Amino acid sequence: MTAPSASLASVIDHTLLAPTALREDILRLCAEADQVSAASVCVNPIWVATASAALQDSTVPVCAVVGFPFGSTPSEVKAAEASAAVADGATEIDMVIHHASAVAGDQAALMADISAVVQAAGENVVVKVILETGALDDDAIVLACQAAEAAGAHFVKTSTGFVGTGATVEAVALMRHTVGDRLGVKASGGIRNRATALAMLDAGATRLGASSTLAILEEDSESDSSDAHSPKGTR
């Protein structure tokens, strides 16, 4: 699979979630995302207002993480966090599920957790549900995907990038098989180069999360340039 950089940029959430990130780091993230027309900038809730102001004349939306990175806060706290982020300008929310419920096979608890955030975010906000696939077996991944769909979420997402192995082709393929074409699938965690990004898209991802966006796009541009100058029949 070969995607030109403009197309690849349009499916990447340009991400900075380090707890030590400073205001100037967030402003640089926003400028970079605007320059390449990324799918969104993804930031911690404390930076949503800053990012929203920086991107007020841009088409790039702001995504906020909720319950990040462990998902171990009460659902009502996640809902309040989502509501505050939306008030600050977020139009996408990436929430972390309560993983113990997935491990225990408690779909009702998962649905309640996700529904609280979906309802707090409102009908015009995209909600992505982070499963932390590296910490779950296949049955738990399928259960969480089903709960996300039933709760009205728009995407399921592999990972926070802070726990376990991050995104894998196998997890993305399983999630896509579970949700069909009804939900988006976001691959995130450990996507640092073009080959990995394209492998995730080939496996069924429709959105990527990356902090190495510019490096990935540079590789993509170099690949396109090389392909354009290759003799016919050598690609």
UniProtKB/TrEMBL annotation:
The gene is deoC. SMART domains: DeoC. SUPFAM superfamilies: Aldolase. Its EC number is 4.1.2.4. Belongs to the DeoC/FbaB aldolase family. DeoC type 1 subfamily. Keywords: Cytoplasm, Lyase, Schiff base. This is Deoxyribose-phosphate aldolase. The active site is at D94, K157, K186.
